[in-house]
Automatic annotation (TrEMBL):
Belongs to the NAD(P)-dependent epimerase/dehydratase family. It comes from the Bacteria. Residues 4-225 form the NAD-dependent epimerase/dehydratase domain. This is UDP-glucose 4-epimerase. InterPro entries: Epimerase_deHydtase (IPR001509), NAD(P)-bd_dom_sf (IPR036291). Coiled coil: none annotated. It comes from Marinobacterium lutimaris. Pathway: Bacterial outer membrane biogenesis; LPS O-antigen biosynthesis. It holds the Pfam family Epimerase.
Length: 294
């Protein structure tokens, strides 16, 4: 059974992967902003000797680091770029000392493709990110792929759409933030084009898909999502219908916002034989808000 080193183990995506590994009784160790002792230890980047030791015993590294969000690049581009670059170089420096057999990069399908070309984006489409966050994800993909090529490491890239349903992280993603705010009777502010569409994936299903990718270690790029785009206005309309008193303010989108983000997940299904299930974003939203006391 593979020993796994999970970078970003307590973040939105990383914590879901960790939970799925725990559910399966799988051994792993992690790296995050805050350390933790235990059967599955989590180190910080200050614990370099421990990380190098973990790399010695790990056959695959999963990069789920994601401390920066798109808004960070909008608010402070220079600061976000410097933080992003420093974190990536630190990871590469450690990996070069103890190269693993395989590397799984978690990337952002919702940003790297840019506008969908009149059909769902496929993995061989040229990337065309419109935001600085998306551009940096493309840079990240390229540098880790180059590293893997240099060290003859199996490189797999999972381009994940928009996960929802991680109740430990209610401030991440439109669906979870919307539920969190209206449940607490707080105003919800959003900025999107009236026709904006996004692909969403239920977080536990995303984790199940990613752990499957860890086990198989097939090289290449794979889109991970539900495969059906959702109109953002529909999510807001569901909320207003269930909770007419909810304070929701929709503003104009940022210049770099994509209108239609849609991806094909056929390659993942064909390669790994796994169909993405779980509730849709609309089903999950309806279920959660139906339980809110007005």
């Amino acid at each position: 059974m593979k020993k796994i080193l999970l970078l970003g183990a307590t973040g939105f995506i990383g914590s879901n992967i960790a939970r799925e590994l725990d559910r399966q009784g799988r051994p792993w160790s992690g790296v995050a902003r805050t350390g933790r002792e235990g059967s599955n230890s989590i180190y910080t980047f200050e614990d370099e000797e421990e990380i190098l030791s973990a790399l010695d015993s790990s056959s695959i590294v999963v990069n789920a680091l994601g401390g920066l969000k798109p808004r960070n690049f909008e608010d402070d581009l220079n600061g976000a770029m410097n933080e992003f670059w420093a974190a990536m170089q630190r990871v590469l420096r450690l990996l070069r000392q103890r190269p693993p057999a395989a590397f799984l990069q978690i990337s952002s399908a919702g940003t790297v493709y840019g506008e969908a070309p009149g059909r769902p984006s496929v993995e061989c489409d040229p990337v065309s990110p419109q935001s600085w966050y998306g551009r940096m994800k493309v840079v990240e993909e390229a540098l880790f792929q180059q590293f893997a090529h240099e060290k003859d490491i199996t490189y797999t890239c999972a381009r994940v759409t928009n996960p929802f349903g991680n109740e430990d992280h209610p401030t991440h993603g439109l669906v979870d933030v919307l539920i969190d705010h209206v449940s607490r009777k707080e105003p919800f502010f959003a900025h999107y084009h009236p026709a904006a569409c996004r692909d969403y994936i239920y977080a536990p299903e995303m984790a199940r898909a990613l752990v499957t990718m860890i086990d198989r270690s097939l090289p290449g790029i794979y889109n991970i999502g539900y495969g059906v785009p959702v109109n953002l206005q529909e999510l807001v309309d569901i909320t207003k219908n269930l909770l007419p008193g909810a304070e929701i303010v929709v503003g104009t989108p940022s210049e770099g916002d994509v209108v239609t983000s849609s991806v094909s997940v056929q390659r993942f299904h064909d390669s790994f034989g796994l169909a993405i299930g779980g509730p849709s974003a609309k089903e999950y939203l309806y279920d959660k808000l139906s339980k809110v006391v007005v």
